[in-house]
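RECORD TYPE: inverse folding
INPUT: structure tokens
STRUCTURE:
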């Protein structure tokens, strides 16, 4: 059976500065996968290339069996990819409810789609702040809102870029709890984060990259057994 997402030989550059050098990995349906590495190693560029925001020079990206590397970002999103971007990028002048409803869709006919009530149940704090504007929320609340907004599109694949960066420990734990819940529900997820101790408990498969190239791939048991990899490639 083919993977939900297959990235093969991805090469991407910003002008004359090449960032990715033949990156390859795959994510299976229902799997939680990670993309790990130090800052500046190409993680966000990989996400941007998958989403069509920074088109690849070479290589292929297949999603649900369809090649998407040449498609426009809006068309890729409509195929069922959703991203929680680094920096959250919620709409500051819209309320929590308006942010959540702005892109609500069930294009793929899910029998149990995410709804407004479902997202507010997942994040009770958002339910309490539902009338507040985006710029009136704390950083943690904004991150919850960004995740909820992505879920409202009912994606096949949810991508989280630095999902817990800069959050207070208690709020960070709430985000991990949310991801555990999504995993248990069968949501396919790609996570970029630095907290390897939590990721080895959450994820099935891990890809480590350095300078735009894959340097290691394996499962959580293998990664947990090799802390030297953490020091060498992630710096924790």
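DESIGNED SEQUENCE:
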């Amino acid at each position: 059976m083919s993977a939900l997402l297959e990235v093969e030989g991805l090469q991407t550059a910003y002008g004359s500065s090449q960032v990715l050098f033949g990156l390859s990995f795959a994510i299976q349906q229902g799997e939680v996968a990670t993309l790990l590495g130090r800052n500046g190693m190409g993680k966000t560029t990989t996400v941007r290339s998958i989403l069509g925001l920074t088109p690849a020079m070479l290589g292929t990206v297949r999603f649900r069996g369809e090649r998407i590397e040449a498609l426009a970002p809006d068309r890729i999103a409509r195929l069922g990819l959703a991203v929680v971007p680094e920096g959250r990028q919620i709409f500051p002048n819209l309320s929590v409810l308006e942010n959540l409803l702005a892109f609500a869709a069930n294009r793929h006919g899910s029998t149990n789609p995410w709804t407004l009530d479902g997202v507010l149940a997942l994040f009770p704090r958002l339910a309490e702040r539902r009338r507040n504007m985006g710029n009136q929320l704390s950083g943690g609340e904004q991150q919850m809102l960004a995740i909820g907004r992505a879920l409202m599109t009912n994606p096949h694949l949810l991508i989280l870029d630095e999902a817990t960066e800069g959050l207070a420990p208690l709020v960070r734990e709430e985000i991990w709890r949310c991801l555990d819940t999504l995993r248990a529900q069968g949501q396919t997820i790609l996570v970029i984060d630095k907290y390897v101790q939590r990721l080895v408990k959450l994820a099935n498969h891990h890809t480590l990259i350095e300078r735009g190239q894959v340097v290691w791939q394996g499962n959580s048991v293998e990664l947990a057994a090799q802390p030297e990899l953490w020091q060498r490639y992630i710096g924790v």
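NOTES: The chain is about 35% helix and 25% strand.
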